[in-house]
Design goal:
The chain contains six helices and five strands. By secondary structure, it is of the alpha+beta class.
Amino acid sequence: MKRRTGVFWLIWGIALLPLAGAVLAYSLRLPVAEGRTNHGELLQPVPTLAQWGGEPSVHTGHWTLILKPVGSCEARCQQQLARLRSVHDALGRDATRVQVLLAETEPAQLGTGVWIVDPIGNLVLRYRPAQIGPELLEDLERLLKVSNLG
C-alpha cells in the first residue's frame, strides 16, 4: 500500500511540475510569460498615415523601412543605412515587398531610429539604430510571413 501511495504522489508531482514552472515564469515576468516575440517597440495605438504625416504615394502598397537619423546623414548614418540595406537584401525573394528609405527631414513627428510602415501606411514597429541587424530581420521575416499585404 505504501508503494502505491508513493507512485500516486510521483504522478501528481510530474503533472504539477509544468504548472509550477509556468507560475514561476509568470511571476518573474520572463519574456516567455509576456508572450512577446518581437524585438522592436510595438506601437500602441498604431499611428495612421495621416497621423504621422507620411506621403501616401511613397508609404503605401508595400512595407517600408524608414531610417530617421539624428541630424544630417553623416558617416555613421551611412553605415546604418548600409546595414539596413543588408537586412533588406537578406530577405531574399520577399525583398521585393519592402523598400528602404532615408528620412532626414520629413516627417518631423518621427523620432530617431528605424520605423516599419505597413502597406496601408500605419507605423507598426520602431527600432533603435543598434538593433539594425538580426533582430530587425527576424521581426521583418515574421511580419512578411503572416501578412498578405504588400
